[in-house]
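hi!! sorry for the late reply, been swamped w classes. u asked for the two structures so here they r. pasted raw, havent cleaned anything up. first the sequence of the first protein and right below it the tokens
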Amino acid sequence: RGRYAASIAAQLVAECGGLCTPATRSPVSPTPLTGRQREVAELAAVGLSNKEIADRLYTSVRTVEGHVLHACQRVGASSREELAAIMRAGAAGAG
């Protein structure tokens, strides 16, 4: 079932000229990040600062820092840059 959904998503991405959304970036299988951690990590991966993420999500910079820290711990990243690389590679999602 998961492979079927992934193949349909890949086909739709191709038909839409490489459309890239959180749904098309997220893997089908369960992964270690909560929804909010994934959301913050994805915004960090596209280059937003903690302040920009906090403003976009209507939360504090300190809360964003905590989500980044916990996301790094959950996926084994040792830095924000490594977390961003993991997110861009699609190795972390909702759990």
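now the second protein. again sequence first, tokens right under
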Amino acid sequence: MKTGFKYIMLLVSISIFSSCTKDFLTLTPKDQLTDANFFQTEKDAQAALTGVYGQLQPNETYGVSIDAADIEWAMSGDLYEMDGAAARIEIHSLNLPSSNTKIRDLYSQTYIGVSRANLTISSVSKMEGLNEDVKAKIVAQAKFLRAIYYYRLVNYFGGVPLVLEALDASSNMEIPRASAADVWAQVEKDLNEAIAVLPPKWQGNDLGRVTKGAALGFLAKTYLWQQKWTEAVRVSEEINALGIYNILPNFRDVFLETNEGNAEMLFATQFRGGNDGEGSNIVYRTAPRGAPAAFTGSGAWSNFVPQTHWVQAFEKDQNGRIKDDRYWRAIIGPGEPHQDMAAFVMPASVPAGWSKSGYILTKYWQKATIGNSGVNAPVLRYAEVVLNYAEALNEVGRSQDAMIQVNRIRTRAKLDPKPLTLSKPAVLDAIFYERRMEFIWESAGAFSDLNRRGRFLDFIRDNRPNYQTLDVANKPWLQTKPILLPIPREAWERNRALEQNPGYTF
């Protein structure tokens, strides 16, 4: 779908947090597209759906910057943020004020995705003369996207306003928070309804659209959050039964722009390189600032770099050399060549401006990029499906089967298998170790997974070298289970029906 991801300027941008005035929204321009005159043809319906997909692209939603880097991996402490932005420092230090602009933007941009999905679902469902199969598939895709936008919101904020209809200027914008249980129930409902319609695969120009497997994968994640272990096992086995997905032999191949749509990627945010608004700045954020332009292209910021203590967590051989193939496929350190550009070698003494730790992640930096990058952002990989399945198996008393799944991940990493006879707690530890080493700078494996199992505080105590400076005991917002982010102050200023999460103030 790379050719189709254009942000469309319709009323799909109306959200419950719109800054537009009611007077403005009551106008009915005769020379512009509106929701009243737009949904006439299949082309219109597909364009609206493209707008829902398009809202995956911002850094604030599923663009692997604010979500995967700032929140997931910098909060857990395994990524270091180099540019020192105040809002990022607040998140990394776990201060989390309701005025934080990164959290505000994540909240509001995700709700824009919800509003676009709502308008598409409502309007396309009412269209007459549209092929019923086409209509059903468009609505199913929009329901999946609404589900993962709400998944993101309930994951980070707990119960949130549950809006399922397109809103207009006459709508009541003072909408109280639903319970977390109600939001999770709606996520389940949307995913199950999508699963009933979505195809296992798409072809041609439709590659990149959501599939049945992706919806099943998010349903399994939804069940894990609610500790519905038996259901998570069942859904994981349904994914396996599709016979479509597998763990690629080469870890690096999973992320290559030249290998998109591979058998390990269930769903990814689609990008297209260039300057037409369809690209990502992920290469700029990855490549080391100050490195030669021949290898970095038109920009290099090294916003986020792996922390030294994360690198030290890799398993090593008897000579102290890292054994784990994931390191050699996705990281470069002092004196080491780039995996795809052998002429680039990190200096033996890495300049502090390149990387504070001396290491650079190369999952997304694959070549010099002029303009924005076309590398897709992983949202759900089969490796995560496997570890989710292992976690659920362990909880239903099938720990040996769980370790078989864990060892599939270890085999690809060229590590020795772990015993199948580990205790239930040891199996869970093994699963979380593989999450940590597998998914750095992806939306899985760090804060959210640790948080849903109540492991986050123990993890940062044991692994963050600056733990004592975090003053965790005096931050009441970190004492809740699960830990929640604050409802942003600006959201409350627009919707005074909102209540704040425990430990925070507006």
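hope this helps!! also noticed smth abt the second:
Strands lie at 79-81, 265-269, 304-306, 331-332, 360-361, 377-381.
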